[in-house]
Amino acid sequence: MNLNLTLLGQAISFAIFVWFCMKYVWPPVIAALEERSKKIADGLEAANRASRDLELAQEQASQILRESKENAAEIIEQANKRANQMVDEAKEQVIADGKRLREAAQAEIEQDVMRAKEALRAQVSVLAFAGAEKILGATIDEKAHSEIVEQLAKEL
Keywords in UniProt for this one? Predict the structure, then answer.
């Protein structure tokens, strides 16, 4: 056999093999490589997206935490103000009650003093009439006695 014919046969066989590979083998391999490349790109994009989402979620979480702290501080401040207000109201109520009790006690004392003065006036007038009877040596009748006592009580 001739070397040229063998070489030509091998070249034709190689060309058929290349054509067969390009027609039937290469497209699935290229498709698999492209699919793999696309999956890798999608994975990288998903990782980037997840990273951005994580950063966004962390920012939102920190913002919510900050707002919660502000709300808690505001609620505590309002509670403290309300507690102080309640204490002030209680103090005012106690002061008002004390003043009212003091005034009531003062009024009761004044009434007791007035009653004591009235009783003292009555006793003084009785003693005065008794002394006057002894001095005069005569008895004054009850009607005249009560009129004089009332008149003296009014004058005193």
Answer: ATP synthesis, Cell inner membrane, Cell membrane, CF(0), Hydrogen ion transport, Ion transport, Membrane, Transmembrane, Transmembrane helix, Transport
Residue 7 half-sphere exposure, CB side, CA atoms within 13 Å? 3
Q: Structural domain boundaries of the chain?
A: 3-155
Q: How buried is 85 (Cβ within 10 angstroms: 0-12 exposed, 13-18 middle, 19+ buried)? A: exposed
Residue 143: C-alpha distances to residues 44, 91, 102, 146, 151 (Å): 126, 59, 43, 5, 12
- DSSP-based three-state secondary structure for 71: helix
Q: For 14-48, what is each residue's pLDDT tens digit?
A: 999 999 999 999 899 999 999 999 999 999 999 99
End-to-end CA, the chain: 172
pLDDT tens, 96-149? 999 999 999 999 999 999 888 888 877 877 777 776 666 665 566 667 667 776
- In three-state form (DSSP H/G/I as H, E/B as E, the rest C), the secondary structure along 9-55 is HHHHHHHHHHHHHHHHHHHHHHHHHHHHHHHHHHHHHHHHHHHHHHH
